[in-house]
Design a protein that fits this description.
Catalytic activity: Co-precorrin-5B + S-adenosyl-L-methionine = Co-precorrin-6A + S-adenosyl-L-homocysteine
Radius of gyration: 21 Å
Shape: globular
Keywords: Cobalamin biosynthesis, Methyltransferase, S-adenosyl-L-methionine, Transferase
Family: Belongs to the CbiD family.
Distance between the termini: 31 Å
Number of domains: 2
Structural class: alpha/beta
Largest sheet: 5 strands, mixed
Number of strands: 18
Order of helices and strands: EHEEEEEEEEHEHHEEEHEHEHEHHHHHEE
GO molecular function, one term: cobalt-precorrin-5B C1-methyltransferase activity
Helix content: 25-40%
Pathway: Cofactor biosynthesis; adenosylcobalamin biosynthesis; cob(II)yrinate a,c-diamide from sirohydrochlorin (anaerobic route): step 6/10
């Protein structure tokens, strides 16, 4: 089978910030203006990323990198991420978010409430990139010149991030998973897996795939992005067993019958979580907090681990009943992970 078109991968805002930080440190210490830098990523790949501009002063150096989204429809494509570096008195690397970087105003997100929206994974990426240049103490300031304006066109405010964009990315790489042509890629990958396995694990994203790899052979796991329903339909015609493994936010959309989980196709995450929580018999006070939360992650902070398990079991059972309608002759399984990777529910396995 031939894929008719090759899709371009992109880089995350976190990878852009890491590249800008490394270029700024090279400028600061070596007085050198690099046109590209190579950075390490959490998945072991190294990325060579173009640097748009480097400005060097006696005590500070700044570099700019443009976010590149590949063939993903992304409003952040082309956005400039600017990092400035100066020496720190101790040997630590301090990372500060300023103009255009959002601030976290609600609990449950990857960054702590009150901090700037720079994920722990990105902070580690930046530190690793800088440590390839020096072991000296460095202060990095991240700015996104047009971040506050662009953020108004994103969902950041709805989840409790205000004043700018988030600096995110679990792998550093942005995969083109949201367009129609990506289905052909999924079909090809399923056919490859079929040659060696009679089952397949459908994982919407990087974290789901990572957690699933602790339970299954990584070679039988396929990342499908938003196209969950289409991928399950394709897989149900090829395998004896199809396992859907994901995190709560994505799978709560499937619970509501939204099988393409791209934001443009609808959103019922908190409504679904509230509904399942009612069915699970959670206390009224907890239900109120859940329904008023801005994100699933925040809502989870109001629930005990046992309550999460009870609610997610209801969600998994409903999802299982939905996907069984695709093919009655297939053994389907649904696994829902907590945000720390622990399995909250496992139905049909």
């Amino acid at each position: 089978m031939i894929i008719n078109s090759l899709k371009r991968f992109g880089i995350t805002t976190g990878a852009a910030a890491s590249a800008a930080a490394k270029a700024a440190v090279i400028g600061l210490l070596n007085k050198e203006k690099r046109s590209t830098v190579v950075i390490p990523t959490p998945i072991g790949l190294r990325l060579e990323i173009p640097v748009e501009k480097v400005e060097i002063d006696s005590e500070i150096s700044c570099a700019e990198v443009k976010k590149f989204s590949g063939d993903n429809p992304d409003i952040l494509d082309g956005l400039v991420i600017r990092c400035c570096a100066k020496l720190n008195e101790n040997n630590e690397i301090v990372i500060i978010g300023e103009r255009g970087v959002g601030k976290v105003t609600r609990s449950g997100l990857k960054a702590t409430m009150g901090e700037m929206a720079i994920s722990p994974t990105v902070r580690e990426m930046i530190i690793n990139a800088i440590r390839e240049v020096t072991d000296k103490g460095i202060q990095i300031t991240i700015e996104v010149p047009n971040g506050e304006t662009i953020a108004e066109k994103t969902l950041n405010k709805m989840v409790g991030i205000v004043g700018g964009i988030s600096i995110l990315g679990t792998t550093g790489i942005e995969t083109p998973v949201s367009d129609d042509d990506y289905l052909e890629h999924i079909r090809c990958e399923l056919n490859v897996i079929r040659q060696s396995y009679d089952y397949v694990v459908i994982a919407p994203g990087n974290s789901a795939a990572k957690y699933a790899a602790e339970l299954f052979d990584s070679n039988c796991i396929i990342k499908v992005g938003d196209r969950i329903g289409d991928s399950i339909k394709l897989a149900s015609n090829l395998f004896k067993k199809v396992i859907l493994a994901g995190l709560p936010a994505k799978l709560l959309k499937v619970y509501a019958g939204i099988f393409n989980t791209h934001y443009s196709q609808g959103d019922a995450r908190l409504e679904s979580l509230t509904h399942a929580s009612v069915l699970a018999g959670l206390p009224y006070g907890t239900l109120t907090k859940i329904s008023n939360a801005l994100s699933v992650e925040e809502a989870f902070t109001y629930m005990t681990k046992e309550q999460r398990r009870k609610v997610m079991n209801i969600v998994a059972e409903k999802i299982l009943s939905r996907i069984k309608s695709f093919n009655d002759n297939i053994n389907f399984c649904v696994i829902i992970f907590d945000y720390d990777g622990e399995s909250l529910s496992r139905v049909g396995c």
